[in-house]
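S2.1 Query sequence (UDP-N-acetylmuramoyl-tripeptide--D-alanyl-D-alanine ligase)
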Amino acid sequence: MSLWTAAEALAATGGGGVANWEATGVSIDTRTLQPGDLFVALAAQRDGHDFVAQALEKGAAAALVTHLPEGVDPHAPLIFVPDVLEGLARLAQAARARMSGKVVAVTGSVGKTGTKEMLRTALSGQGATHAAEKSYNNHWGVPLTLARMPRETDYAVIEIGMNAPGEIAPLAKLARPHVAVVTTVAAVHLEAFENVEGIAREKATIIEGLEPDGIAVLNGEIGTSDILVSAAQAGGARVVRFGSGNYEASLRSVVVKGLVTCAEADLNGQPVVFKLAAPGAHLATNALAVLAAVEALGADLALASLALAHWAPPEGRGARWRVALGPGGIDGHVTLIDESYNANPLAMGAAFEVFVGAQPVDGVGKVRRGRRIAFLGDMLELGPEGPQMHASLAEHPAMAQIDTVHCAGPLMKRLYEALPEAKRGECCKTTKALAKKVPRLIDAGDVVMAKGSLGSDLAVVVDAIKKLGDATDMRQTGESD
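Output structure tokens follow.
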């Protein structure tokens, strides 16, 4: 099905070029490009113009460029624009303008991607739903998501992130959401902000993109809630607060058992019961925000509640793996909790609480006692307070139930030094060095968690753990701890 005709793309971008093609998708990466895609030659780590010839060879319908790339026929299907990123943004504007459905945008210091995926799950059964791939939430990810949006979309879910002041509002204005969700505000990206209040003010700028009569779904439990609410009211938005208190969306009870979370809530006086195929009280809070957004969009709340039972955490954000040791698992197994995609103090604490709810198995390994073992990498972009924030993790109540902590990176060394000697495992300068030691640090019956910021590359530790045996995604098998 056609996503962009040449005439539409030329009109949207204001560019010039050949007008006899149709695109069925939009791509910025020749490694994942599909035949029929419009290739957008963005300049990132490398200039996308260097790959235009390859994109056309792989079947790209056309390419968005600033100039004729080397090795490309002058008569090739190209759109010439002064700036490729601006051209992509104009495609995004046009895609948003031609779409008659509803848009919900999600931001927050923690939980954006998981909440975005919950919204996808909750809405997919109620209409054609389009959502960002992975964490495409930045200055190119948001316009790319919009440019890929089919014109027949009923619900669009747009994730919006930031690293510095002034980034959210332009993306929100591009998305023009009917509903905006702020999951939470926490001490993240403090290198670019003076304090958490500054982060809250930046998150609140998502309100600037709301459509008239828009609705802001805001976390009522956080200390900066008043900043969010004031911004929403000043922008003319209706406010729906969520949390465990007496709010428009109130969480009444949460029960976590095995790999399942069950919750009861009250949404504008209406009782709601829902279940998630993942453990964590914090996930129930995010799910409540999702249901509040679903109601604000005018979708069916009961259907959305039922659909959430099929949601599970994205890769690197709490997914669980059963790693069978020895041929056919004859030597027992290890349970791996993969939290390697992101980390900050709030998310780390929530992960600890889920981690200590997982039960090791005694009597199956060489150690004879199953243990909870954490592999932790640096939490990045925390500013001058970063070292102390790492050290203070030693004081988290859940730490008492964690047997051994292995650390990687200069910041996590501060935690290592703050831990009781009995809990100290390995302390390495890099995650790669720690990954090499994995085989002698884990035994059958252990429950293992790996968590760190994406830039600290805990994924190499996760891969090392999986390679100990036959790794099976527990989301696919329905297994519990």
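Residues 281-297 form the longest helix (17 residues). The chain is about 30% helix and 25% strand.
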